[in-house]
């Protein structure tokens, strides 16, 4: 049993590394996407959600309209989308996104805007930010798929949430997921603590 306590009155802030999650999901080609709305609800559980951020780049190639529509859907559902204008189309990689996410998490911790940071990424580049957040007296939960999580991320977190255990992969629109199904998984997750 952990000596760290978890309280339903905790203020939770979720930060999603969108590219990391997309790469994790596309390892299994039978699924098309992750249900980010259900993900946020499950990670929040019975606690108070004070912010849900998604970090991505503005992909300036042929999928710009699809990326914009996806970002708009996330915004419509309550996420704050931070999209950096920094996609390197030649190397097909994002720039500045991980740093923007790390800075945002640390700044919010220093401003005492949350009690628990939920980092949705298995990328070990976030370890220095996690250490600073913990030094500020905040708890950090890391949520990622086990196959794409750096072991150091798991060790550094106050709690690791294996996303493999939840029905989050889908081929349909995330808005279509029923409230009943999400509530069932939130209840299941809270009983496991």
Write up this protein:
The structure is a single chain. The chain has 193 residues and is of the alpha/beta class. It has helices at residues 18-25, 36-44, 64-76, 97-110, 127-135, 151-156, 179-191; strands at residues 11-17, 33-34, 48-57, 80-84, 87-88, 93-94, 116-120, 139-144, 159-162, 169-170. The protein has one domain: Rossmann fold, CATH 3.40.50.1010. Helix content is 37%, strand content 23%. The strands form 3 sheets. It has a 6-stranded parallel sheet with strand order 4-3-1-7-8-9, with helices on both faces. Strands 2-10 form a two-stranded antiparallel ribbon. β7, α5 and β8 (139-144) form a beta-alpha-beta unit.
List the helices and strands and how they pair.
Layout: E1 11-17, H1 18-25, E2 33-34, H2 36-44, E3 48-57, H3 64-76, E4 80-84, E5 87-88, E6 93-94, H4 97-110, E7 116-120, H5 127-135, E8 139-144, H6 151-156, E9 159-162, E10 169-170, H7 179-191
Parallel strand pairs: 1-3, 1-7, 3-4, 7-8, 8-9
Antiparallel strand pairs: 2-10, 5-6
Named CATH topology = Rossmann fold
| Beta content | 15-25%
Largest sheet: 6 strands, parallel
Rg is: 16 Å
CATH superfamily name?
A: 5'-nuclease
Structural class: alpha/beta
In the CATH classification, which architecture applies? Answer: 3-Layer(aba) Sandwich
Give the beta-strand count: 10
What helical percentage do the residues reach? 25-40%
SSE string: EHEHEHEEEHEHEHEEH
Mean pLDDT: 78
Instruction: Please indicate the count of domains.
Output: 1
Query: Under the CATH scheme, which class?
Result: Alpha Beta
The rounded distance between the terminal residues' Cα atoms is 10 Å
